[in-house]
Amino acid sequence: MTASKDPEVARPRIATVWLGGCSGCHMSFLDTDEWLFELAARADIVYSPIADVKAFPDDVDVCLVEGAVANADNLELAHELRAKSKLVVSFGDCAVSGNVTAMRNPLGDPRAILEHVYVEAPDRDGVVPGEAGIVPELLPRVQPLHRVIDVDVFLPGCPPPAERIVAAVEALLAGERPKRSGESIRWG
Amino acid sequence: MMRERRRTLTVSFDGVEVDAYVGESVLQCARRHQVDIPSLCFLEGLSVYGGCRVCVIEVAEDLRLRPACATTVAADMEVSTDSPRLKAYRKAIVELLFAEGNHVCAVCVSNGNCELQDVAVHVGMDHVRYDQRSPMRAIDASHPKYLFDPNRCILCTRCVRVCDEIEGAHVWDVGSRGQQAVLTTDLNQPWGTSTSCTWCGKCVAVCPTGSLSYQGTAVGEMHHDPKMIVRLAAARRGEWIDPEEYR
Question: pTM of the predicted model, to two decimals?
């Protein structure tokens, strides 16, 4: 991405997305503290759980994606953000590897898991919650983001420490790829 | 103690000539000369298994990859430790280890103190290109002191070897074959019912991942101590090694 010298002409457009994850990566994003002001001075956050925007916009330069692809909504949004973003970043271990979100995979069919949690568990009302078009269907398997769409940059960590996020986003804003070695790629 | 004078020969690592002891492995020689070759199943003092394949090297123009731990040095051997091909294979091997089991660092007792995690960082693994197998494996928490989680096991067999060769109990072994292969205690009975286990904890000490741990250990709290076995094995051989060096 090449940013014009005139900030009014080409401010980088950044999106952050929350798929099947705990929001911890976004908490870590907020943990970048005053750097957020620097970021806001140089770029536009055009879509994010912390910015009330309903539809994923066009022409995004960098899209940070937290979470694994666990349900039908995640899958649809993953394809949409890929089509509308220049660079897609797997943001945190769930997007990178499936992580905790994918721990249901060994248990197999998600219907059996829902039955167990909502019907067999004694403190429930015995009904699997569902509402067509509102509660998204669970996918048969939870997938890391790159098994569903092409991913340009991997930013592991559960969550990625704030310094790691700053280093990666700074590199991307400078038109470079973040470092893919050393402690910056440690999972967990 | 008088140290026996060891016969030496010359080998080279990536073009740099060094002295090697006759009979030692390429990995041992490399480590003595601070040549960095990653490994997982190898542990000084235990027999050589050569199973993880992380320490693969190339010798001169020979196209075969060889495990450095199971390759004996020879005169004028030209060893390549860091070629693009080796880097690519090592990374693929580590990715396959992650794809094979259920390695969820974020909820693992060994998070931050894990040899598998360290090797993944070493080889530059920022994601796994292969599909996760996601096997269903039951945890054995029947032992009063220790816990075995086969989801985190990479079948390095350090526990099998230390229990057999150092403790002399041979509680552990590998049962089943291929992708069903799993560590077993006694004749595939729950660990807590084992009549051969001495509760010594050497298996836990040498585990490179979070697969063997102490009961009641929380995320990131597990610290293994494989160097303890290195010191112990050296003492058994009648050798003294600097504990500071093998801390």
Answer: 0.93
